[in-house]
Design brief:
It is an enzyme of class 5 (isomerase). The protein is of the alpha+beta class. Helices cover 17% and strands 18% of the residues. The protein is globular, with a radius of gyration of 39 Å.
C-alpha cells in the first residue's frame, strides 16, 4: 500500500500523516483519501453514523450569545431576567393552520371567539354579567317614555350631598365592580331619574333614586321579592283554597313573613309560569292591558290542523265578550293525531286561549304558559319555585316602565 493510502486508511484513526498534520475533513486539506469526496470516517461517527450512505453535511455554525460583562452571573445562565434568556421557538400553531380557521364565525366547526375583557358585550362590562340567569333575554322592551338628554347633565340637578356615590350604589347592587361601574358612567350608559350621568362625583339617595344601566332597571330595595313558579296541573292559582285543593302556598317552603301576589291567574287545568312578588306596583302594571305584556303559550290540539286557521286567529275571532286575536302563531311539532302550537298574545281575559281555539273548532288538550314578558321557564322543574336574578328583575321592571 502506498504512503497516501496508509494515510487515508480507516485503521489510521488518528488521521495524522507522518509530518504530524491533521487531515480530518473540514480542515482544508485535500491530500489522499481525506478529501470531502472520499473517506467520511471522523465526521460520519459524529453525524449520520458510521458507514452511512448519506452525504456529509457540515454542521451549522453555532451562534454565540452576547454576554454582557456587567450583567449578573445568574442572568447570564438563564436564571435571571426573562430578557436575558435565549428565545425559544413558540409551539403554538399559526392561526391559519388551526382547525376551522377559514370557516365563517358562527358556523359548525368554526373556532369560538373569546370576548375581549372590557369590550362591549363582554361579561365584565355588562350589567349583572356574572349572573347565571338573564343572560339571553334579548333587547330591553319598555313602553315609550320621555328620555333625558344624551349628554352631560349638571351635578346640581341630581347631586345629593348626603347621598352615596353612584358607582358605589351600582357596585353594591351587583351590577359590576366599582371600576367597571365608573367606566359605565363615563361612557354614558347610566341614567338617574331619567337623565344620563357621565360625571363620577354624583351622589344619590339609594332609597329614592331610579337608576338604569343600559336600560335595565336596578332594584335597590332589598325587601322586594320576585319569584317564578312552574305551576303543575291541578293546582289552584290562589294562596289559600277553602275547598282544600292544592294551591300556591303549598309549594312555598320559606315565605319569610312576606305577603306575595301572584301575577295573573292560570286555571286549574293549565300549567306553566306564574310570577310571585310583593311588589304591588309591578303586579298591577303586568296585568294592566295598557302595557300589553306578551305571554307565550304552548297549545296541544288534535290533528291534522288545516291551513288558514293560524291566519284566522291572528286576524281575530269573535267571542261572547268581543273580538280577540293572537299576536303570533307558529306550528312547533306535528305527530299522528296531535299538533303542538306556540301562540303569543297580550290579552289578559279569562281563559282566552282555550276560548279562541274552541271558536275555531279545535279544543285544547293541554295548555302550558312558558313565558311572561322577558321571563321564561326554560328547564325549570314543574312544581318548583326559584328567585329571579337581578338582571331578570331589571328587564321585567323596564318592560312596564318602572
Amino acid at each position: 500500500m502506498t504512503q497516501a493510502g496508509r494515510q487515508g486508511s480507516p485503521r489510521n484513526s488518528s488521521g495524522r500523516n507522518s509530518s504530524g498534520h491533521n487531515n480530518t475533513p473540514g480542515r482544508g486539506t485535500s491530500q489522499g483519501g481525506a478529501s470531502a469526496g472520499g473517506f467520511r470516517g471522523g465526521s460520519a461517527k459524529r453525524g449520520a453514523g458510521f458507514g452511512s450512505d448519506r452525504p456529509h453535511r457540515a454542521p451549522k455554525p453555532r451562534e454565540e450569545r452576547f454576554i454582557d460583562p456587567d450583567q449578573a452571573p445568574e442572568a447570564r445562565t438563564g436564571g435571571g431576567a426573562p430578557e436575558a434568556r435565549a428565545a425559544k421557538p413558540s409551539s403554538r400553531k399559526p392561526a391559519a393552520r388551526k382547525p376551522g380557521a377559514k370557516k365563517v364565525p358562527g358556523t359548525p366547526g368554526a373556532p369560538k371567539q373569546k370576548p375581549r375583557t372590557g369590550a362591549p358585550g363582554a361579561a365584565a362590562s355588562r350589567a349583572f354579567g356574572s349572573e347565571r340567569f338573564g343572560q339571553n333575554l334579548g333587547p330591553i322592551r319598555k313602553p315609550s317614555r320621555r328620555k333625558g338628554p344624551r349628554g352631560d347633565v349638571p351635578q346640581s340637578e341630581l347631586h345629593d350631598a348626603d347621598g352615596v356615590r353612584l358607582q358605589k350604589v351600582m357596585a353594591s347592587a351587583g351590577v359590576a365592580s366599582r371600576r367597571v361601574c365608573e367606566e359605565m358612567i363615563a361612557e354614558g350608559r347610566v341614567e338617574v331619574d331619567g337623565q344620563v350621568v357621565t360625571e363620577l362625583g354624583v351622589r344619590v339617595d339609594p332609597k329614592t333614586a331610579v337608576i338604569h344601566v343600559d336600560g335595565i332597571r336596578i332594584q335597590l330595595d332589598e325587601n322586594m321579592v320576585y319569584m317564578v313558579f312552574n305551576k303543575p296541573k291541578g293546582v289552584v292559582s290562589t294562596m289559600e283554597d277553602p275547598e282544600g285543593r292544592p294551591c300556591i302556598s303549598d309549594f312555598l317552603r320559606n315565605q319569610h313573613g312576606e305577603r306575595l301576589f301572584h301575577v295573573g291567574r292560570l286555571d286549574v287545568a293549565t300549567e306553566g309560569l306564574l310570577l310571585l312578588t310583593n311588589d304591588g306596583e309591578l303586579a298591577n302594571r303586568l296585568t294592566h292591558p295598557s302595557y300589553e305584556v306578551p305571554k307565550t303559550y304552548l297549545v296541544q290540539v288534535r290533528g291534522p290542523f288545516p291551513q288558514g286557521i293560524g291566519a284566522q286567529l291572528k286576524q281575530g275571532v269573535e267571542l261572547e265578550d268581543g273580538f280577540a286575536s293572537v299576536d303570533s302563531f307558529r306550528l312547533v311539532d306535528s305527530t299522528p293525531g296531535h299538533v303542538l302550537i306556540e301562540v303569543v298574545l297580550h290579552s289578559g281575559k279569562n281563559r282566552i286561549v282555550r276560548r279562541l281555539f274552541d271558536a275555531v273548532g279545535f279544543p285544547v288538550l293541554r295548555l302550558v304558559r312558558v313565558k311572561v314578558g322577558p321571563i321564561g321557564l326554560g328547564d325549570q322543574r314543574q312544581g318548583s319555585i326559584r328567585n329571579l336574578g337581578k338582571q331578570e328583575v331589571g328587564h321585567l321592571l323596564a318592560s312596564v316602565g318602572l
